[in-house]
Structures are given as C-alpha cells and as structure tokens.
Predict the structure of Citrate synthase.
Amino acid sequence: MTVCEYRPGLEGIPAAESAISHVDGQRGVLEYRGIKIEELAEKSNFLETTYLLIWGKLPTKPELEAFESEIRYHRRIKYRIVDMMKCFPESGHPMDALQASAAALGLFYSRRDLHNPAYIRAAVVRLMAKIPTMVAAFQLMRNGNEPVRPRDDLGYAGNFLYMLNEREPDPLSARIMDICLILHAEHTMNASTFSARVTASTLTDPYAVVASAVGTLGGPLHGGANEEVIAMLEEIGSVENVRPYLDNCLERKSKIMGFGHRVYKVKDPRATILQGLAEQLFEKFGSDKYYEIAVELERAVEERLGHKGIYPNVDFYSGLLYRKMGIPTDLFTPIFAIARVAGWLAHWKEQLEENRIYRPTQVYTGYHESHYTPMEKRY
Ligand code: ACO
C-alpha cells in the first residue's frame, strides 16, 4: 500500500471514484453526468436532473412522468413527524430542524434492503418528496401557523414556494427556484457529500446518510456561506463603502463570504448563471441596492484577489435571489439542502454499488507510554 503524506482537509486526495459530476476548476466547467451545467439550467428541470444524477441517464418521457408522479404522491409527511417538529424550539435554526426531521424519517421507514433497487427508489422518492415539505412546515410552524398541504398541480419548486409562502408563486420565481435547485444539486466530493459517502459506507439507512450530510452542509465554510453573504452586504450598506470594507477585511485577514473555492480558481459557473437570474428577477420585480453592492464587491475583490484565484462562488448571488423572493435568510441553507439531497442520494447509490467502509488512517502526534496521574498530583 502506498503511504501518502498527510494533507490537511484531504486537499487533492481522491476519496472515491465517481461518474456523477465533474469540475474543471481552472476552466470554470461543471458537468453532471457529462452534461454542462449551463445546458441543464437552460433545458432541464430539477426532477429530470435528479433522475439523471441518480440513475445516470436522462429519463424517457414515461420514466420522468412516473418519477414525478411518485414524488407528488409522497410529498405529505406523517402527522407524527409534524407533531415532533411542533416541539422544536421556534428559535432553532431550520438546518437543525431539517437534520432532526430527516433522521426521524428513518424511524418510520426502517426496513433496510440496500441491495434491492425498489428499496433504493422508494427511499429516493421519499427523501426527495418530503424534505421540501419539512422545510416549509418548520418555517410555518415556528411562526405559529399550521403547515400547508402540498399541491399536486404544482411542480417541485412551485409547490415548495407555495408551501412556504401560502400562495402560488409567479411562474418566473418558480422557474428561477427550479434552476437554483438544479445548480445546487451536485458538486463532486465536497464536505457534505464526503460526509454522506462515509455514512453510506457503513450500510446504514439513507435517512441517516442525508441527516449526516445536512449537518455538514450547515457550516459557514460550506452551505452556510450564503446566509453570511447577506449579513456582509447589509454590513457594507452602500456601494461607496465596498472598498473601505474590503480593505478592512484584508487587513484583518478575514475571509470575504461567497468568494473563493477549493477547486474553482475562476468564477464559479453557477455564480455566473445565478447572477443572470438575479438580473431577470430584479428587472421584473424592481432593483435591489444590495445587488449593486454585490457587483461592486465582485469587481473590487477581483482587482485585489483575482491573482490568487479568488472569485465569486455559488453562494455569492444565490442569497440575493432568495431574498428577493421574500425567503428568510436562515432558509437559504435548507434550500441548498433540498437541492443537494439529489447529489447525496446519487453518491449513496454509487457508494453502495462498490462499497468499502471508509477507514482512513491518521498521523499520531500524541504521547506514548504515559501513566495515570492520581488526582492530587494533577495541576
Ligand atoms: N476572502 C479572502 N481571501 C480568501 C478567501 C476569501 N473568501 N478565500 C480564500 N482566500 C485566500 C486565503 O486567505 C489564502 O490566502 P493566502 O494563501 O495568502 O494565505 C488563499 O486564498 C487560500 O485560501 P484557503 O482558505 O487555504 O482556501 P481553501 O481552499 O482552504 O478554502 C474556502 C476554500 C473554504 C471556500 C474559502 O475560500 C472560504 O472560506 N471562502 C469563504 C466562505 C465561502 O464562501 N464558502 C462557500 C464555499 S462554496 C460551498 O461550499 C458551497
């Protein structure tokens, strides 16, 4: 066995062989099963893209219709899950509520038959169908309202917005949300996907796989960055303050949220698409001063940090879009999770196909042959 040198964050070390997605960080290319993200954002929809990611091919019309119909059928969540969620503190973060609810699904669907394609499909359908309902239900219940029943006549993104806002979304917002879900659905071996694969490799149930990945996605260096971007833009407050703010950050060596990426050394292609969508939304529903601030910040960061390969990542413009749709900031990461469940499940399925439990090694830096110190001799 080759012994590798220790690399913090496993940077550059392959953790799996995967045929699901590919990133070329130097050229700013992202492909799902070989199809460029720009093409999927233009021509596909989120459920079709989910099918592509999980089953490795674009569905035929009957296959897609069957998948959509199964998802519609399973959108509702059990009363006992709703009751459980009602006991969550209203002040709790929706990502924590989502993690707990996703894990709780495992209590109700505990039969584990990982070699059976029908079991895999049923778990995929349940998780894809119920996660948006759980996110919307927590949002309504923490504000003292009853959850809204899903509507079968609405598409995946449109129904989610309907359950969240208790009113049918306009078609542009529904389509933009659908594209946002496509863009966030999968992204090679990032932290939450790695987490999902490690959990999957123990042959536990898929609800535990998704719950562990949700927990990992929540951190500010991963999915949580889109919330921090809005806080940062609000703190900047005006276009004039962009450069002084940036100077101050660089002096303090603090990170600019929504910028930089372990893999991309150019602008993240998803950020480019999201920026275009933001412009469409602002054109239709009125401009947003925070968008002007964001564009100026991108310009200033490129001037100062472009040479280090620091450009906007997927989190930079997504929050502005969600904000314009009236979505509270702390739901941005749960929306990321709704999308990424597709990628996590694709990796779960792929991991099961040739499983070997993850068991890396470590570089031990501690003591040897120490002795137990009696309490009175400790200091
Ligand atoms: N602002 C300012 N400088 C940055 C930033 C940033 N956002 N990102 C990286 N740098 C600089 C670092 O200071 C470092 O400079 P140095 O070499 O002079 O010390 C260099 O670029 C390399 O940075 P690392 O932190 O080593 O890069 P790493 O690959 O470990 O980090 C990460 C990537 C975590 C995304 C980082 O860029 C970051 O913290 N960004 C802000 C948070 C964010 O937007 N996260 C979302 C990422 S996308 C996603 O998870 C969906």
